[in-house]
């Protein structure tokens, strides 16, 4: 049987020992063997820092985003191989969809977000420029630059594709290389995933490495520039977080740990209501998808005391229809657990749960299977426990990582909020109700204990992705037992891999460092209007000053009549005079902006293709009839678009009055041809 290889230090490494056998979760047959024997962990990390990091940092955010799209497209074309391997982990077609297509979807999402929400630059200028001195010659701003280390990811067995990709995508976009250490049980799927990723040709050498087998002394060689992302049990997370090197070097450590996630049924959702049915359907899905082996699965289902019998009957009736067995059979709805050892671990946990409750559905030791040997494969019946006393410790402390959930009764908002908190921190909770007041009260009560909350009702049911589906635009993590980390979360996940640094400098130097013009930095006013320059010719700081133009009472009257904006400050002298902010008739803010555009625009066809918006618009001083307006327009930021014939230009627009005071300031956004 084949030995799984590691990809480290720029080459594939085959261990020199037989390795540990990995078994097909359905048939019990050997799939592969695994060992990290002979892998030089120190050299692998150094390869990532020395080769992968510099190669990634030579690229801009947009260039890295484009490579993520290439990678996602390539994996989409080859995902059939991953589906075939995934079935050997016990996953059904639906399970594999969540893992494989879900993981590829994360790549597409980060590619899109990188192009839309990050600059086409190597460093991110974050937040506004802070004026640190009276004359404005001393300013400050935060920048975020890639760490010069490796993002080490230690993953769980349940998502061998999504798990690595949801960590890889934000790290790659940030410019930080990754080293993947998958859980052994399903490492053969991740190994093939990495083979495909490398074969795509999209990844610079050193930006991706794989260790198949034990992590060995990997953590011993971490530096303050490295990061660790862990997914797995809360106990293992505590152990890794307490590693002496992690502590000594203040290594950024993110844990996404198994948690006792809950779902709460509202009192309004009585038997026969749509929300009642949604609750039952969702609970059964979370028990059976991936055979309940999800860190986001519902472990505690809180039900109003008066509805407990009805929910028990509805859930057990639905579970009875679930066919369990070989995922290759189209009638099968739930496959096997990842391994026989995992099945035994779940059985031990369920025995602890039934010490404080009653097993109302399923058989702990026997299950009927379709096209499979129920003992040779790691099969287990869905198991529904009904708590005898919701205050007992076991349901709030013991997690059975399989197709297991416990029904717990509650009476009132205060009690269910207190019971939910007994989980000591969860990745996700859901509240199923049509009662907005109940949803609000419970959300605010349990939010401090949860990383994500789904409020499910008939309004969003058709489009909701469900309780157990982390989304790349939102954080995946939770406080306390759940690990205290935040993964994904859109650009938040990228920022985790960047070092935020406060830069204090002159405007001239700060503009050079960030690539963005800031007030006080030099402007360049030449004979050629900036609108006549292509993206290749335009430079940050190119500027034009135009005006003055006198604002008349007739202008204000005409604008009021033409637009229909007859707000009293523009049309009623007595009322305007009584307004302490104005003291008389003032020009419309949008009249000022319109006049400014008329002053700075160069009207001939040319490189400027379109104006697509304004941002950060503020009116700072009233403009009265007789005031003279002058506008200074300065190229603030130039963002070429990859694989396009144009780019974006952000202009600083400063509209001033005859005494030099600023009447309006804003950013003008344009699309400009590259040549």
UniProtKB/TrEMBL annotation:
Record carries keyword Glycoprotein: no
Every Aldehyde dehydrogenase domain range: 23-442
One Gene Ontology term of the molecular function aspect: oxidoreductase activity, acting on the aldehyde or oxo group of donors, NAD or NADP as acceptor
UniProt-listed InterPro entries: Ald_DH/histidinol_DH, Ald_DH_C, Ald_DH_N, Aldehyde_DH_dom, HotDog_dom_sf, MaoC-like_dom, PaaN-DH
Keywords: Hydrolase, Oxidoreductase
Segments forming domain MaoC-like: 541-650
Stretches with biased composition (Gly residues): 477-488
Keyword set includes NADP: no
Disordered, as annotated region: 462-488
Record-linked Pfam families: Aldedh (PF00171), MaoC_dehydratas (PF01575)
Family note: Belongs to the aldehyde dehydrogenase family.
Protein name per UniProt: Oxepin-CoA hydrolase / 3-oxo-5,6-dehydrosuberyl-CoA semialdehyde dehydrogenase
């Amino acid at each position: 049987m084949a030995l799984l290889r590691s990809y480290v230090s720029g080459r594939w490494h085959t261990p020199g020992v037989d390795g540990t056998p990995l078994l097909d979760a359905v048939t019990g047959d050997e799939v592969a063997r695994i060992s990290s024997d002979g892998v030089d962990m120190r050299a692998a990390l150094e390869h990532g820092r020395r080769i992968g990091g510099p190669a990634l940092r030579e690229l801009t955010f947009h260039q890295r985003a484009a490579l993520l799209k290439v990678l996602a497209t390539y994996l989409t074309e080859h995902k059939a191989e991953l589906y075939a391997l995934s079935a050997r982990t016990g996953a059904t077609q639906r399970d594999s969809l969540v893992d494989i297509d879900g993981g590829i979807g994360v790549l597409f999402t980060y590619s899109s977000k990188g192009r839309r929400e990050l600059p086409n630059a190597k460093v991110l200028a974050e937040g506004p420029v802070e004026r640190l001195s009276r004359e404005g010659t001393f300013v400050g701003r935060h920048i975020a630059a890639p760490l010069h280390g490796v993002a080490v990811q230690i993953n769980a067995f349940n998502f061998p594709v999504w798990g690595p990709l949801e960590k890889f995508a934000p790290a790659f976009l940030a410019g930080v290389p990754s080293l993947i250490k998958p859980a052994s049980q399903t490492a053969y799927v991740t190994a093939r995933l990495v083979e495909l990723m490398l074969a795509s040709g999209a990844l610079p050498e050193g930006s991706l490495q794989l260790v198949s087998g034990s992590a060995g002394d990997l953590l011993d060689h971490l530096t303050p520039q490295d990061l660790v992302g862990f997914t797995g049990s809360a106990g293992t997370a505590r152990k890794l977080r307490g590693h002496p090197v992690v502590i000594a070097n203040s290594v950024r450590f993110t844990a996404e740990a198994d948690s006792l996630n809950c779902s709460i049924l509202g009192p309004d959702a009585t038997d026969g209501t749509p929300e009642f049915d949604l609750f039952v359907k969702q609970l059964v899905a979370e028990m059976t998808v991936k055979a309940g082996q999800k860190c986001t699965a519902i472990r505690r289902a809180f039900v109003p005391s008066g509805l407990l019998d009805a929910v028990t009957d509805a859930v057990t009736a639905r579970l009875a229809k679930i066919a369990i067995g070989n995922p290759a059979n189209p009638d099968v709805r739930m496959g096997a657990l990842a391994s026989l050892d995992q099945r035994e671990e779940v059985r031990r946990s369920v025995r602890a749960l039934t010490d404080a409750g009653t097993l109302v559905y399923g058989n702990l030791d026997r299950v009927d299977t379709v096209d499979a040997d129920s003992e040779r494969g790691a099969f287990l019946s869905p198991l529904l426990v009904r708590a005898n006393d919701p205050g007992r410790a076991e349901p709030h402390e013991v997690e059975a990582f399989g197709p297991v959930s416990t029904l717990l009764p509650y009476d009132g908002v205060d009690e269910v909020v207190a019971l939910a908190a007994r989980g000591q921190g969860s990745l996700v909770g859901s509240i199923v109700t049509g009662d907005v007041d109940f949803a609000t009260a419970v959300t605010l009560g349990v939010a401090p204990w949860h990383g994500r909350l789904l409020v499910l009702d008939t309004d969003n049911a058709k489009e909701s992705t469900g309780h157990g589906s982390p989304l790349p635009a939102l954080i995946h993590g939770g406080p306390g037992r759940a690990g205290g980390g935040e993964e994904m979360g859109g650009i938040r996940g990228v920022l985790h891999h960047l070092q935020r640094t406060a830069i204090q400098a002159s405007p001239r130097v700060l503009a050079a460092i960030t690539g963005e013009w800031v007030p006080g930095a030099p402007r360049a006013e030449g004979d050629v209007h900036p609108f006549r320059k292509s993206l290749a010719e335009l430079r940050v700081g190119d500027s034009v000053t135009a005006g003055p133009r006198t604002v008349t009472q007739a202008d204000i009257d005409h604008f009021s009549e033409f637009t229909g904006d007859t707000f009293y400050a523009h049309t009623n002298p007595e009322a305007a005079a009584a307004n302490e902010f104005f003291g008389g008739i003032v020009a419309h803010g949008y009249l000022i902006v319109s006049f400014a555009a008329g002053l700075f625009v160069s009207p001939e066809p040319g490189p400027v293709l379109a104006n697509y918006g304004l941002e950060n618009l503020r009116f700072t001083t009233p403009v009265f009839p007789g005031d003279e307006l002058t506008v200074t327009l300065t190229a603030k930021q130039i963002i070429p678009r990859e694989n396009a014939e144009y780019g974006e230009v952000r202009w600083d627009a400063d509209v001033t009055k005859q005494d030099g005071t600023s009447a309006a300031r804003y950013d003008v956004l344009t699309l400009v041809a590259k040549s």
